[in-house]
Amino acid sequence: MGITNSLKTICNKLGNNNKPTYVVMAIATVKGICRPLFTMMDKKENPETKKYTAIREGLTEIIAIPVYWACGELSGKFAHLLAKPKNFMDKKLYKKYKNGFHTSKVMNAYENAKELAENNLPKMNKNLMFIGVCGAALFVIPALCSVAIRPLMNHLQKKNSKKEHVKPVYNYYNQVLPKNNEYKRLSSFSNVPQYGMKVGGV
């Protein structure tokens, strides 16, 4: 019962106070862990390709998590600018209220608009957060990844290519030996150097 009650409490709090930023940050965290892990578990892929792909996927999500949070929270701040009585009030009545004509009709309209603004503030906050998160996914994160990850991956590839670069080894007949320094089987005896007398005049 204790575990059940705890789960209910957590679900109720998340349901009442959930934000779009929490959702996308949780998704980015899971992707940052699982995608590189599954990439490295692929036995059919080239090891070097797996390594670079896993690094790129992990770095992408590391960048995405704080960007989602920052863009969502910053966008949500604009809700206070939009959720004002003047945006929920007739323009003529609000002009009278602003100019000091505080008649009963004007004051009633203002109080109603103020109540509407307060009730809609949480909704507007979450909607703006959602817009901010979408903007981060479409523009901010790809731009940051292009600036930060691409140079890093290019540097790692150049560094690895220098390590793998080995001067070719030649045998007695000026033939390049394989990387494993083993001779490949010759497909025809005509390629084998001939010495001395051969049976059949060959």
Give an overview in words:
With 202 residues, the protein is mainly α. The chain has one domain (2-164). It has helices at residues 2-17, 20-40, 47-77, 79-82, 91-98, 104-164. Helix 3 packs antiparallel against helix 6 and helix 5 (91-98) packs across helix 6 (104-164). The longest helix has 61 residues, at 104-164. The radius of gyration is 34 Å and the shape is elongated. The N and C termini lie far apart (92 Å).
Supply database-style keywords.
202 residues; mainly alpha; disordered C terminus
Show the helix and strand layout.
Layout (H helix, E strand, L loop, with lengths): L1 H16 L2 H21 L6 H31 L1 H4 L8 H8 L5 H61 L38
Characterize the main sheet: none
What would you report as the Rg, rounded to the nearest angstrom? 34 Å
Oligomer: single chain
Shape estimate: elongated
**Low-confidence runs of at least 5 consecutive residues:** 181-192, 194-202
The helix tally amounts to 6
Q: How would you concisely characterize the structure shown here?
A:
The protein is mainly α and 202 residues long.
